[in-house]
Specification:
The structure holds two protein chains of two kinds. In chain A, about 35% of the residues are buried. In chain A, strands 2, 4, 5, 9, 10 and 11 form a six-stranded mixed sheet that branches. A five-stranded antiparallel sheet of chain A has the order 1-3-8-7-6, with no helix packed on it. By secondary structure, chain A is mainly beta. In chain A, a hairpin with a 4-residue loop joins β9 and β10. Chain A is about 0% helix and about 60% strand. The termini of chain A are far apart. Chain B is mainly beta. Helices cover about 0% and strands about 50% of the residues of chain B. Chain B contains no helices and eleven strands. In chain B, strands 2, 4, 5, 6, 9, 10 and 11 form a seven-stranded mixed sheet that branches. Chain B has a four-stranded antiparallel sheet with strand order 1-3-8-7, with no helix packed on it. The chains are: A mainly beta, B mainly beta. At the A-B interface, β4, β5, β9 and β10 of A face β4, β5, β9 and β10 of B.
Chain lengths: ~110, ~110
């Protein structure tokens, strides 16, 4: 069973498009994290959310605790946004659960 | 700050060999964790620690041991390597699970 589901698995967009990646989870959580993994393999944290909405530059993350759902939006996408985006939840028992990731390719 | 460091970057083992993957952080983080990343599976938690002297199992702990004798270090030991342990291993740390996670660069392990 997957505690965290992401969609879509793969996404190709033209430069400038608005992108949405979705994450649904089935466990009780204290926080939800969005991570970015570039082709080189390194993983960086983009957002940590426990409620509401956060914005960093062209990235926006929202969470609906009641619906157990989060979205990551990228406005005015750029080829440098090409990466794998991973949703992770910090659940009960101090454990993290991860989605399988969304592979984004932005074409110039 | 060096952040989270992992050694080695690459390792090839033969079945049955043992080894230790090193992880260290210099940010005084309490929460440290080990993950493996396999194609199509995403990241999976192996072991984690909420402070020095405290460790616990994650989703896939079998075949791995950990210890946390200091706040800074969290080594992962493979007791008797198996081909199923071929994977990319990441170490991460944070003040707590509700804070920003910092990941090491990863170790690519191949077990023949």
């Amino acid at each position: 069973k997957n505690e965290v589901e992401q969609s879509p698995q793969n996404l190709t967009a033209q430069e400038g498009e608005f992108i949405t990646i979705n994450c649904s989870y089935s466990v009780g959580i204290s926080a939800l994290h969005w991570l970015q993994q570039h082709p080189g393999g390194g993983i960086v944290s983009l957002f940590m959310l426990s409620s509401g909405k956060k914005k960093h530059g062209r990235l926006i993350a929202t969470i609906n605790i009641q619906e157990k759902h989060s979205s990551l939006h990228i406005t005015a996408s750029h080829p440098r946004d090409s990466a794998v985006y991973i949703c992770a939840v910090y659940g009960t028992g101090n454990q993290f659960y991860f989605g399988t990731g969304t592979s984004l390719t932005v074409i110039p | 700050n060096a952040g989270v460091t992992q050694t080695p970057k690459f390792q090839v083992l033969k079945t049955g060999q043992s080894m230790t993957l090193q992880c260290a952080q210099d940010m005084n983080h309490e929460y440290m964790s080990w993950y493996r990343q396999d194609p199509g599976m995403g990241l999976r938690l192996i072991h984690y620690s909420v402070g020095a002297g405290i460790t616990d199992q994650g989703e896939v702990p079998n075949g791995y041991n950990v210890s946390r004798s200091t706040t800074e270090d969290f080594p992962l030991r493979l007791l008797s390597a198996a081909p199923s342990q071929t994977s990319v291993y990441f170490c991460a740390s944070s003040y707590w699970g509700t804070d920003t996670q910092y990941f090491g660069p990863g170790t690519r392990l191949t077990v023949l």
